[in-house]
């Protein structure tokens, strides 16, 4: 059997975006947009966070600024400082993927998918189940 390549479009999950928590959107936007020349992509805010999307090939970098100190992003920045908050994988079938996670005994934060940014169905997996990384799942 042939080993898949990095450009194999028949692969399972793909990286939809990487969420980066920032103290202020201006600091992050300047680096990603002005230095790396990543174009901004309009996104709607979600879960108590202001969001700026930046195109990175077929994926996005989402910069997340807390709207309140007690929001998930506000708590994250207060505890850990700015940095990578989560990685989001797009899967073919979110419900089937969550079933596989349950069957494998993985800790799931969102047992039932909910609406995330841009009105897409999402579910989060606890970092204890994913090698220490908060994982968001969404459908392709």
Strands, helices and their partners?
Layout: E1 14-22, H1 25-35, E2 40-41, E3 49-56, E4 59-66, H2 72-80, E5 83-91, H3 94-103, E6 114-115, E7 121-125, E8 135-139
Write structural notes for this entry.
With 140 residues, the protein is of the alpha+beta class. The chain has one domain (14-139): Roll (2,3-Dihydroxybiphenyl 1,2-Dioxygenase, domain 1), CATH 3.10.180. Helices cover 21% and strands 34% of the residues. The protein is built from 3 helices and 8 strands. An 8-stranded mixed sheet has the order 2-3-4-1-5-8-7-6. The radius of gyration is 16 Å and the shape is globular. The model has no long low-confidence stretch (mean pLDDT 91).
What's this, in brief?
The chain has helices at 25-35, 72-80, 94-103, and strands at residues 14-22, 40-41, 49-56, 59-66, 83-91, 114-115, 121-125, 135-139.
CATH superfamily: 2,3-Dihydroxybiphenyl 1,2-Dioxygenase, domain 1
Strand-and-helix sequence, N→C?
A: EHEEEHEHEEE
- The CATH architecture can be given as Roll
Number of domains: 1
Distance between the termini: 26 Å
Please mark out the parts with pLDDT under 50 across 5 or more consecutive residues, or reply none: none
CATH class: Alpha Beta
Tell how many strands the DSSP assignment holds: 8
Q: Radius of gyration over alpha carbons?
A: 16 Å
**Strand line-up across the major sheet:** 2-3-4-1-5-8-7-6
Largest sheet entry: 8 strands, mixed
Percentage of residues in helical conformation: 10-25%
Shape: globular
Oligomer state equals single chain
Mean pLDDT: 91
Structural class: alpha+beta
**CATH-defined fold name:** 2,3-Dihydroxybiphenyl 1,2-Dioxygenase, domain 1
DSSP summary: helix tally:
3
Report strand %: 25-35%
